[in-house]
Design brief:
CATH architecture: Clam
Strand content: over 45%
Number of strands: 12
Distance between the termini: 20 Å
CATH class: Mainly Beta
Oligomer: single chain
CATH topology: outer membrane lipoprotein receptor (LolB), chain A
Strand order of the largest sheet: 7-8-9-10-11-1-2-3-4-5-6-12
Structural class: alpha+beta
């Protein structure tokens, strides 16, 4: 039940989404930079797929296909920098929420909340693309990756050596974000697709304030 939560939590803390730019651009890199400059908050839906790298034995077999190990979906809201609600609704209800200072991970089935300091964890992580500031060139090397099936792709490689992600791929179509790929150092891939995006929606001042559910155990970790 934890596969979706663990993968996205890894992207946030160890350092997983792009949405949409206001109009079409010549390249994926230009669209990304426009998004960071123009979209300060957003709300939408996501589908997340976990793709496990083939084993060495399977890799030696011609035509070996990666294995999809889990699919989850839900909604998200964010306000850069460092505030977000990433809510898994299917197949299990799980929540990651940050108020700019603390990260709260809530497991509904266990009625348990884990609290961690957000700190600088977003800096060189894939999550920084969505939730961080606009200093992408400081933390990533950007490269246009061409067009595939009508989608403009770019690749971001973390400049930090201690990240668990080797590469992040982002795809746009006509200025709208279509997908994001997180490639970890073990060869696994997290695929994110987005829909029903609202950019810069009105948000309440306390929209990201986390309230501990009644009776929940709280773990500071």
């Amino acid at each position: 039940m934890q596969y979706g939560l663990k993968s996205f939590y890894r992207a946030v803390v160890l350092g997983a989404s792009m949405l949409m730019a206001s109009h079409a651009f010549a390249s994926g890199t230009e669209q990304l930079k426009a998004f960071v400059a123009q979209v300060h908050s957003a709300h939408g839906m996501f589908v997340q797929r976990e793709v496990k790298a083939p084993s060495k034995a399977a890799s030696a077999t011609p035509g070996a296909m990666p294995q999809v190990t889990g699919v989850s979906s839900g909604t998200f809201t964010f306000a850069r920098p460092g505030k977000f609600i990433w809510s898994y609704e299917k197949p299990y209800a799980q929540l990651l929420q940050a108020d700019g200072d603390k990260l709260y991970v809530y497991d509904k089935d266990l009625n348990q909340v884990t609290v961690r300091t957000l700190g600088n964890a977003l800096g060189a992580s894939p999550a920084a693309i969505l939730f961080g500031s606009n200093d992408l060139d400081k933390n990533f090397t950007l490269r246009d990756a061409g067009v595939k099936d009508g989608i403009d792709w770019l690749e971001l490689t973390p400049k930090a050596q201690d990240t668990q992600f080797q590469q992040v791929g982002i795809g746009f179509r006509d200025g709208n974000l279509e997908a994001m790929e997180l490639h970890d150092v073990f060869g696994n891939v997290t695929l994110l697709t987005f829909s029903n995006i609202q950019k810069n929606p009105p948000l309440k001042s306390d929209a990201f304030k986390f309230v501990v559910p009644k009776g929940a155990d709280v773990i500071n970790g």
